[in-house]
Design goal:
Layout (H helix, E strand, L loop, with lengths): L9 H6 L17 E2 L2 H30 L9 H31 L3 E2 H26 L1
Antiparallel strand pairs: 1-2
Helix pairs in contact: 2-3, 2-4, 3-4
């Protein structure tokens, strides 16, 4: 690996929130800001997908260990994991594009931390709405 600022290791890139492939143009002077629509969309979407899996994977593991003896409910972890993947692939794509579109229309740059906050915020909102919807039926 070459030394320099352009060659950042994969783990360091993940930990520094620089997960988005870079397409630096002449109007994007800052190294960490996301200027292009596709960069902003991908950054928010990636954090939505990762945080959704972080919420759904422990729930699926808990369901797997607690419901393994049940006749029909033993397949519930598969449904939980499918919701954790399909949610970001359907709704997360659209909401991430809407957020990136607003930033692009406003002419603002998005820093990587904002992409993290918007992505995890989307998953957290889905989690809260899911819990409130279940509590309303009790």
């Amino acid at each position: 690996m070459h030394s320099g600022d352009t060659d950042i290791g994969f783990v360091q890139q993940i930990l520094s929130l620089n997960l988005v492939p870079r397409k630096h143009g002449p109007n994007c002077a800052n190294d960490t800001s996301l200027c292009d629509f596709s960069e902003m969309w991908y950054g928010v979407f990636l954090w939505t997908a990762v945080s959704s899996l972080m919420f759904h994977l422990p729930a699926a593991l808990l369901a797997l260990f607690t419901l393994r003896q049940h006749k029909m409910a033993r397949f519930m972890p598969i449904a939980i994991l499918l919701m954790g993947v399909m949610g970001p692939l359907t709704g997360g794509v659209l909401t991430s594009a809407a957020i990136a579109g607003v930033y692009k229309a406003a002419g603002k740059r998005m820093i990587s931390l904002e992409a993290l906050v918007f992505g995890v915020g989307q998953s957290f909102c889905v989690l809260i709405i899911s819990f409130l919807r279940v509590l309303a039926t009790l």
